[in-house]
Design a protein that fits this description.
- It is a single chain.
- The chain contains seven helices and no strands.
- The protein is an all-alpha fold and about 190 residues long.
- It has one domain (about 5-180).
- The termini are far apart.
- The model has no long low-confidence stretch (mean pLDDT about 90).
- Keywords: Hydrolase, Membrane, Transmembrane, Transmembrane helix.
- It holds the Pfam family YdjM.
- This is Hydrolase.
């Protein structure tokens, strides 16, 4: 799944979780943490596999439940200690939804194993001819119905995000307002 799809799934899961647990829509900063969590597995694995070459594939360490579950628990406990437990919940939902959604193709693709879920206990097949390019992956994805479903999920998530009052947007605007402008170089 591509970044947009991961954000969409994470937001829909988190919106449901906050509705059930808190009877409220998602909160602003928590949504930013959620977005980061939804990208965390790829932000860790892709550079380490594709550019540094220390991981066998782009779905290993950051996609493994053996890392994500303890990390999510630790971040939750740390956030709770500082009165921000919801940030830990948001990260956990984002990161765990990412890795679970990446495992879904095992339901219809016999070549998929879901081995990344328990890496390094379960081995993954390393790249045969080096890391793929983003363009190659994108072009391969265009004919995949799973790829198209990401846009449907994104549209649904955007509708809910709008309905919830665009949580997170004000926090981002606030952060951007504090960034000093680049000096005029003319």
């Amino acid at each position: 799944m591509w970044p947009l799809g991961h954000v969409a799934v994470a937001y829909l899961c988190y919106a449901l979780a906050t509705r059930v647990r808190l009877n409220a829509p998602p909160g602003g900063v928590a949504v930013i943490v959620l977005v980061f969590g939804s990208q965390f597995p790829d932000l860790l694995d892709k550079p380490l596999a594709w550019y540094v070459g220390v991981l066998p594939t782009g779905r290993t360490l950051g996609h493994s439940l053996l890392l994500l579950v303890p990390l999510s628990i630790a971040l939750y406990l740390l956030a709770r200690r500082h009165g921000r437990a919801e940030y830990g919940v948001a990260f956990a939902i984002g990161a765990l939804s990412h890795t679970i959604v990446d495992a879904l193709p095992i339901l219809w693709d016999p070549e998929e194993t879901g081995a990344h879920l328990l890496w390094p206990v379960t081995p993954v097949e390393p790249y045969e001819s080096g890391a793929p390019s983003v363009l190659e992956l994108f072009l391969e994805s265009l004919s995949d119905p799973y790829f198209v479903s990401e846009f449907v999920l994104a549209a649904i998530a955007f509708g809910y995000w709008r309905r919830h009052g665009y949580p997170g947007l004000e926090a981002v605007r606030g952060l951007l307002a504090r960034v000093p402008p680049v000096a005029d170089r003319s």
